[in-house]
Amino acid sequence: MFTGWVKEAGHIDDLLDRLDECLSFVHSKQATFEEKLIVRYLEQLRRRCEYVLLAINAILASSSSVPSNSTLTELEHLNAALANIIGDLLKAA
Predict the structure, then answer these.
(1) 12 in Cβ contact with 52 (< 8 Å)
(2) Cβ contact 53:12 at 8 Å
(3) Average pLDDT, integer, range 43-51
(4) Taking a C-beta distance cutoff of 8 angstroms, is the pair 59, 66 a contact?
(5) CA-wise closest residue to 43 among 23, 24, 14, 13
(6) Which residues of 10-40 are buried (b: 16+ CB within 10 A; e: fewer)?
(7) Kindly report the CA angle at 33 between 46 and 89, in degrees rounded to 5?
(8) Are 49 and 23 in contact (CB under 8 A)?
(9) What tens digit of pLDDT does each residue of 52-75 get?
(10) Residues 10-41 pLDDT 10s
(11) Under the phi-then-psi rule, with left for phi > 0, alpha for psi from -120 to 50, and beta for the rest, what region is 29?
C-alpha cells in the first residue's frame, strides 16, 4: 500500500507541472475577466495540490502506518478527475 501512496504523490507532482503549464499559457496573453477568474481558480487548485502532496510526504515520512485503502482509492479518483480537467484545459488553450 505504501507504493500506492508514493505513486499518487507522483501523480500530484505531475498535476502541478500541468497546472503550471496552464497558468503559464494564460499569463502569457492579454487576460479577459473570465480568464482572470480561471487563473485565480487554477492558482488556488495548485496551492491545494501542493498542500496534499506535502501532507502525503509528511505522513509517509513520519508514520509507520499509512492511511486506509479507501482513502487511497479516493485520492486515485481525485487525481484522475483533475488530470482529465487539466488535460481538457490544455487542449482548449
Answers:
(1) yes
(2) yes
(3) 93
(4) yes
(5) 23
(6) ebbeebbebbeebbeebeeeeeeeeeeebee
(7) 45
(8) no
(9) 999 888 888 886 677 788 888 999
(10) 999 999 999 999 888 888 877 788 888 888 88
(11) beta
Which of 53, 55, 56, 59 is CA-nearest to residue 82? 53
Per-residue pLDDT tens over the stretch 76-91: 999 999 999 888 888 8
The CA angle 38-44-10, to the nearest 5 degrees, is 110
In angstroms, the CA 90 to CA 86 distance is 6
**Model pLDDT, residue 79:** 92
Show the cell assigned to 27.
499569463
Q: Grid coordinates standing for 86?
A: 487539466
pLDDT at 1 > cutoff 70 = no
Helix runs in 1-93, H state only: 2-27, 33-62, 69-92
